[in-house]
């Protein structure tokens, strides 16, 4: 009995002490950052690029075609995301990530060489079709971070990576556009960059993607349960390269999995839990896993029970889940419309027509691509600061749902006010723009909706671009903005109906499991002090049917939340 209790306690402690996979998360983040760079790098110059295609002589119609170019990526990404998700189950997560990076780099290179609207649309759509990283990302993080206590930290990294990508993407797109015009001492007239003025930012972004592709091939580990133990020639090449760089030919550097195992084995040795290492009695030997660094979380009996009790679609798509999906759909629609309309407003030429307040006025700021890129980069800095500093502080005091409401209910007013910035004196325009961007960032404290609603990302720019062109034609520059305000106002309805659950079943089960582990650790330690029989009875009572029941509830809750996420 004492041996059994020690073995179960060792498995529990082992599960609890798993280190955070910093190395693999860093590599995954490097692969992830390429998508926001590709998506946002065109915003500073999209208006001027489409204008150079001479698709229409009516400048008011340019905004509509800009919306089409922006939406092509998101529409294609949405159409292919499910296929990439299924493909990753067959060929592995790593292969899909590398394929997505290759497609992103190829599309950006082609977009830089685009001299017509069809070519630009094709390049952007191809980038979306070949980029399956969004479909695979959440699954990869969940498989990589096996310790539930580390998952909130792991999933919070990706929104910050999106913000970082918008900083670099917008900055590169604005600073490197038309290099012959902006940097005549470096780029001479008649060069390739004179013929293709929007090639340089795309080439630089392609180089970033290529670097991430090489790093991912050499150092990213497969996380699929059935494929991760197969031979990976990329990892072998990466380890060989590291040995050559270090020039010591010594012991191979530890991966995250090896580090987990070494730390756990050292901890177990210190606790004198020798029975756990017995090959004849270790409970982990019945698992299909080949590494002790990833022990089975649940017993075979509990798994057999759970196979019969899978959550139904009705339970998965509950009222609250549907409200959340609808709310985030509206949110993605009007926020990505803002991302497109703001650069267009800054690119439009100033109007000589006097405004007829309160509604009829037209024109823009006529800013250069360098200035627009700088402004959008500052917005990314705002957003990262809010994500890392402001959001945790506000969320701690208001709660998740109230923080969500704080942003949602202020969006309509934000969109109503924004087009009136062109009526400000020139000296107040840039401060007004920065104030609007800061306001908008505070509204997105709820997370990166742009990365989770590709359908709405596709409809948003196209529809808002069409309405912007219509508004410019009839003299109402704020028409598209007021459409966004109406959509944001409608989005307040499902958002107001949301309720914040006290605690999910998984959270309760995990808390119970944590209490059990603490009690188990205490009892195993006290077993060394002459109270073997009495303490072991307590341990057996604690870790028997109650633990199996807790584990079963945790797995059911995790399956339910995964289905809800789909």
From TrEMBL:
One of its GO terms (cellular component) is membrane. InterPro entries: MFS, MFS_dom, MFS_trans_sf. Keywords: Membrane, Transmembrane, Transmembrane helix, Transport. Residues 525-537 have a biased composition (Acidic residues). PANTHER family: MAJOR FACILITATOR SUPERFAMILY (MFS) PROFILE DOMAIN-CONTAINING PROTEIN, MAJOR FACILITATOR SUPERFAMILY DOMAIN-CONTAINING PROTEIN 10. Residues 523-566 are annotated as: Disordered. This is MFS general substrate transporter. Coiled coil: none annotated. Residues 553-566 have a biased composition (Basic and acidic residues). Residues 24-503 form the Major facilitator superfamily (MFS) profile domain. The chain crosses the membrane at residues 25-50, 62-84, 96-114, 120-142, 154-176, 196-220, 321-345, 365-391, 403-423, 479-498. Gene3D superfamilies: MFS general substrate transporter like domains. SUPFAM superfamilies: MFS general substrate transporter. GO terms for molecular function: transmembrane transporter activity. Pfam families: MFS_1. It is found in: Membrane. It is a multi-pass membrane protein.
């Amino acid at each position: 009995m004492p041996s059994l209790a020690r073995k179960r306690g060792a498995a529990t402690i082992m599960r609890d002490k798993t280190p955070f996979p910093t190395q693999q998360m860093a590599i995954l983040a490097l692969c992830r950052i390429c998508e926001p760079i590709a998506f946002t790098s065109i915003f500073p110059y999209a208006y001027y690029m489409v204008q150079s295609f001479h698709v229409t002589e009516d400048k008011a119609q340019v905004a509509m075609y800009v919306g089409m170019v922006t939406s092509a990526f998101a529409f294609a990404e949405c159409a292919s995301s499910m296929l990439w998700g299924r493909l990753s189950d067959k060929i592995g997560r790593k292969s899909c990530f590398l394929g997505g990076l290759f497609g992103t780099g190829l599309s950006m290179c082609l977009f830089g060489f685009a001299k017509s609207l069809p070519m630009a649309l094709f390049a952007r759509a191809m980038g979306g079709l070949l980029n399956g990283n969004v479909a695979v990302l959440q699954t990869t993080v969940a498989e990589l971070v096996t310790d539930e206590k580390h998952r909130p930290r792991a999933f919070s990294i990706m929104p910050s990576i999106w913000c970082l990508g918008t900083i670099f993407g917008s900055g590169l797109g604005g600073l490197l556009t038309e290099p012959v015009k902006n940097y005549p001492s470096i780029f001479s007239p008649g060069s390739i960059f004179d013929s293709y003025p929007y090639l340089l930012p795309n080439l630089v972004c392609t180089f970033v993607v290529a670097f991430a592709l090489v790093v991912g091939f050499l150092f990213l580990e497969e996380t699929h349960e059935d494929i991760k133990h197969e031979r990976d020639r990329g990892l072998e090449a990466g380890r060989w390269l590291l040995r050559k760089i270090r020039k010591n030919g010594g012991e191979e550097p530890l991966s995250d999995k090896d580090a987990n195992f070494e730390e756990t084995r050292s901890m177990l040795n210190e606790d004198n839990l020798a029975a756990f290492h017995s090959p004849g009695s270790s409970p982990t030997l019945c698992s299909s896993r080949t590494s002790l660094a990833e022990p089975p979380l649940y017993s075979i009996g509990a798994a057999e029970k759970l196979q019969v009790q899978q959550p139904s679609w009705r339970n998965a798509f509950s009222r609250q889940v549907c409200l959340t999906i609808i709310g985030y759909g509206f949110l993605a629609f009007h926020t990505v419309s803002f991302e497109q309309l703001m650069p267009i407003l800054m690119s439009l030429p100033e109007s000589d027509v006097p405004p007829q307040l309160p509604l009829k006025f037209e024109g823009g700021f006529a800013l250069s691509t360098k200035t627009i890129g700088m402004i959008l980069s500052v917005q990314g800095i705002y957003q990262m600061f809010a994500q890392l500093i402001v959001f945790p502080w506000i969320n701690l005091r208001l709660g998740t749902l109230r923080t969500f409401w704080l942003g949602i209910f202020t969006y309509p007013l934000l969109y109503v006010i924004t087009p009136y910035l062109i009526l400000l004196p020139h000296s107040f325009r840039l401060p007004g723009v920065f104030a609007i961007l800061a306001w908008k960032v505070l509204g997105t404290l709820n997370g990166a909706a742009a990365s989770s609603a590709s359908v709405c990302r596709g409809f948003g720019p196209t529809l808002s671009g069409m309405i912007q062109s219509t508004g410019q034609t009839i003299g109402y520059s704020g028409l598209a903005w007021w459409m966004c305000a109406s959509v944001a106002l409608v989005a307040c309805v499902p958002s107001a109906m949301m309720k914040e659950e006290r605690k999910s079943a998984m959270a309760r089960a995990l808390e119970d499991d944590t209490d059990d582990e603490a009690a188990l650790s205490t009892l195993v330690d006290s077993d060394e002090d002459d109270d073997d029989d009495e303490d072991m009875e307590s341990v057996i009572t604690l870790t028997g049917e109650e633990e199996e029941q807790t584990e079963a509830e945790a797995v059911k809750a995790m399956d339910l939340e995964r289905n809800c996420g789909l």
